[in-house]
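Comment thread on ticket #2218

A.B. wrote:
> Attaching the input chain for the structure job we discussed in standup.
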Amino acid sequence: MKNKSERAITRVVITTGISSVVTQLLTIREFLALFSGNEFVIALILFSWLILGGLGTLLARPAGIHPSRATLNRLALLSFLLAALSPVQIMVIRVLRDIFFIHGASVGFYPTFAFTFCTIAPYCLILGFVLPYSLFVIRAKNPDYPGIHIYMSDNLGDVAGGALFSFALVFLFTPMQALAFANLPLAVCTFLIFKPPSQPATQGVLFTAATLAVLVMCVYFEKPSLAPEEGGLAFYKESRYGRITVHKDREQFTLFMEGRPVFSSINIRTAEEAVHYPLSQIEKKDHILMISARAGMMGELAKHHPRTVDYVELDPALTSVLFEFNLIQKIPALHVIHRDGRAFLSETDKTFDAILLNLPEPETFQLNRFYTSHFFDLVSRRLSPDGIFCFSIQGYDNYLAEPQRRKLSSIHNTVSMFFPHILMLPGEKIYFLCGNRPIEKNIPARLKKMGISTAYISSYFYGNLTDRRIDYLSALVDPEVPRNTDDSPRLMNIMFSQWFAKFTASPKWFIITLIVFTGMYLFRITREEFVLFSTGCMTMGSEILVIFAFQVVFGYIYFQIGMIVTVFLAGLLPGAWLGEKLSRQGRNVLVLTDCMLIFLTVIFILVFTFGKEMLTASSFLLFGFSISLLCGFQFPAAFHLRGADNVAAVHTFSADLIGAAIGTLITSIVLIPYAGILWTASGLIFLKLISLIIMVNDNGNKP
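C.D. wrote:
> Ran it. Output below, let me know if you need it in another format.
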């Protein structure tokens, strides 16, 4: 009976792992869909998830001291609650976002962090509590049960959940359907630990039925939860690259991508500016390249009668919706290419007379890669000698704030490396017209000479874009502001500062609080716990590093986030299994694996610096698996050195989780925005060097 009970609890732990990872991945995707695809949100979610999980683990300490408090039925109730909370959490995030914040509007760092932390807190605290509690329930009957087995069972479930999501759920189901499917095994396995299947308890049946009812209700209300407050929901689809919704208000259609309005059926001004500002500068307009588009652009473009228009858009689902709702029109010269714009430019041999970049602000790493020296170099090589390159950033009314001025300067200084002539036109958007010959300011006159009729430009250009305003904008450029590169994304630093400045806030108090909290925690832990702290920090720091670096090279993360998380989880299981075999040589194992982690990170720095163009998605996944394998190897060794009783297990689990949480936040919020990817990797090496020195010079005292 004892073995059957242990196996039943183990099944609950495994299915909890499956449920929790699918919930985590869908929570990340939900926040990306609601907060404009901002990668910093990923870090805030992972930090909150881990720190709350660590706190939940510490809350289980009294049950470890008094094993009689750990009962099978209480574990079952907590597991049922987890299964029900999983979809409810997503619904709460989705509904409350538009209650607390304006739909489609930017949200400040601190409100985003508070919203993230509070909405996932109930689920994460219970999840963190359940893992050690499961161990205590088993040890109430079998005091010698190895704690590492619970860790490995949980990790097995995590890997299974990540694989299930990445290879099946993401393709077959909507978010609520996926959560219902992923939580069904947990509900069944939890029901089976109440009593043997031949004698089901009424209480177990009721809790199971209630859990299943919650899952079904969330599936039923999924689409209504996405409906806007005004107008109606005309279209909804979860594509591989983001959430696409179309809202209809009277006769106007607005397409939202990742919670941001990107296309509107009534937008004549933007369409005219984006097309006629650049094309007025060239006589030959045979071959045009458009990287993304804006509503109405195709109709304006047709006035210039180009021979070919290559329209590059990453997401096939997006172009399908754009054509369906007539947000862009099909013209005879149009050739749609479903490819990453940067990858297309690096692979094509075609030369273009005009390249029009129509992307939002460089607020994310996915977008920033279109404003770096590498991208501008690609553009200059694919542009004809008399060709024109055009892009825009957010404009201003009367005053340009300092972060905006630094952003403008960084972009100007970067693009000027490849184009000797640049004209910046102020307005609601600041347009950059870049070429190898002088740019004409009198755009209405040039359009009139070409016989191109316009509604907005011909009527308002002279009143809005005076020589004085144009010269004033040029004078704002600071040549000392660093250029933006892939390796040192200065724009991300500037955009991060602008994010705070926009809401009259500063990141310094957050960073100071984080440092103080980390210092206080490190002062209280043992050497072995510090090693696990650094291991968790290394694991999640590397995961964040891979996520951001992957964005730089490939430009999309919404679809691949599940695969990256799964790979980092997958390495922990075989690592823990091998580490358990050698746990009695704990100190030597920790020293050796620290050396190997440092070596792998050095290799990452060298390859990313000198061979970035040769990197494939598989190489990132291989690096992630290798890092997590070594980190998983360290857990049993440190666990053995720390001690195997219940209290030691609580502190060991929490050290790993808190280290992972701190690593997530420091890497993404402090190191990458201010130091860049390569120096962030160097910071992880430095942390592991400290861990290595501590273990080599271990004399049994606290660090």
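A.B. wrote:
> Thanks. Noting for the ticket: Residues 646-696 form the longest helix (51 residues).
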